[in-house]
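User: Fold this, then the next.

Assistant: Folding the first:
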Amino acid sequence: MIFPLPPEEEEVGLIEGIMPDSKEEYWLAQFLWANDIIFRYQWEIFGGTSRRGGLIVDFVAWLPMMTPIPVNGEYWHSEEMDSDLRQNLVAIADYFNIAVENIPILWGKDAQTKEEVFAWGRANVLR
């Protein structure tokens, strides 16, 4: 019996010299590159992971103002916002002086494929 080959997965490459934590992060970087959006990857605030209370924001893009873009994949985060995630978003919003509601969050359900990430980017980043 002959079985079809599984679809080939695109290799995940470096983002600013850093291996991303997920393919979703790599896809988002590809979207930002494709749309000539200036961004930084793994932006540390309040000391990053080296200080208690510090955070790392997955992406900060200039749209034209600095805008944090967290990537919350299904492995580490559920669709429902728990108190820790909400607290982190409030801290991120405070740091960037924007409303929590204006932070575009890429959830795992919106990032099953590269095409879905690009569609999410067009709807939430290029707005």
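Now the next one, as you asked:
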Amino acid sequence: MGLNLILSGSSRYTGSPEPREFNPVPDAKNFIIGGSVEYKGHLLVEIKYPDCINYEGNKILLYMNTTLKELKKQKYLDPHFSDKLGYLSPIARFVPTPYGWKLGERMLKQLY
């Protein structure tokens, strides 16, 4: 499993019309859900924000007590930590590289 999964078998929600300007800050309404791993009700997932320029918009996020099915229902997916009610927020982020994915998998297995 690695970052190449983001390009195949992904789900996409695009809340904004094309074309868009590129920005260092991800547009939480424009994202592609890529590869994922679920373990004991927790989720490690790759998400691409097409309008973001940092790391080509790729993010690896860890969600606690969240399934892929629940994540796909979101129309707004901010990769930043937040306590906003009604929106899922990651508990950890990892550098979007194969090494970051491995770290995420290790942490996922440590969640209770």
